[in-house]
């Protein structure tokens, strides 16, 4: 099963390790907040709507960060920009630990969103461009996506340990402070990483195209439909994931009456399932194709969310049901990095990925807010989570059915030949538009 990994070159492996750990840190810094919501509700007396709004605005700011990082990465290189994005969101996570009010925490989380919006997008672009064999691209990006489970698991472990060592009013701050430590390891791993050949070739041919023109191409011609569908696809899977993962610790603690240790134990089972789901989805996306994998896992995740949240079962049964829930809700993500990367030409791949995936993040950001709104005197938290997650998974199935199958495509020919339009536009533009476009990485 791992023969494909043994075939990777040294550069491909270095890219994988750097992207894997970078993604894990990204998820740790984002998900740690979900474990702290119940504590902050008690500490600050803030409403559940405010708690959900902090998540929403963090994700909205990630769109701005992703577009900016994508435009820079398409001009100056993926590796160079990645070195800065991880520092931004790690330092911002540390600043969250010194917050003194919900409003201040929201401001620092929005700053964090600027960093991880670029980090998560560029990680997937980098690994999909580094892989030489397109038959393994789904597995390569899928295994990179499995780092979500490690980041989520790291957040659960940090939560359990810190809340057993410190009082709650100190422990939640320590959880945020921890975000900066693994980021230093990522910076070290990426110190000698080289740019992908497909990007270097594309940059040499792109000419002096302005940043505004690059961004406009994502919303024009044949790419517009792909941008809309990729945004809806990622928005559905992210929205469902955020609805479940953001509120699951609060659900287990407040409605199921579990302790900090009990909550962490139940989440550990779900997180273990999510790791298995990432691996299963990685192989499925190359074997079954991208579209069928999305639809199969989304349908299964919807059913499991309803069983887990709505059907009356004992706490013991819930412990075991958490495993298949994790498998299905994470497995649906495995092909997203490959699908979006395969939908755009090399010259604007980072920009297109940043726009599509993070527009999806903005769409998904309203899902945890919707859960908090529904649970504010309208329905139970369990039913609110199930309903909102169900909408997300339905959106995945519809958008996946409308997208073209991109499995096995040559990245140099991806995007429907739209790079030809860019070259014509570059010839018509004055050289002074982007004098640094040809600067080496």
How much is the average pLDDT? Answer: 82
Instruction: Report the sheet with the most strands, covering strand number, pairing sense and barrel closure.
Output: none
Quickly give the structural class: mainly alpha
Measured between the Cα atoms of the first and last residue, the distance is: 35 Å
Specify the helix fraction band. Answer: over 70%
Q: What proportion of the residues form beta strands (DSSP E)? A: under 5%
Radius of gyration: 21 Å
The counted number of beta strands is 0
Strand-and-helix sequence, N→C?
HHHHHHHHHHHHHHHHHHH
Number of helices: 19
Uncertain ranges:
419-441
Based on Cα principal axes, name the global outline. globular
Describe the protein's architecture and organization.
- The chain is mainly α.
- The protein contains 19 helices and no strands.
- It has helices at 3-6, 10-44, 48-76, 78-96, 102-130, 137-145, 147-165, 168-177, 180-189, 197-206, 211-218, 222-255, 260-287, 290-309, 315-331, 336-341, 349-374, 381-402, 419-428.
- The longest helix is centred in the first third of the chain and has 35 residues, at 10-44.
- The chain is globular, with a radius of gyration of 21 Å.
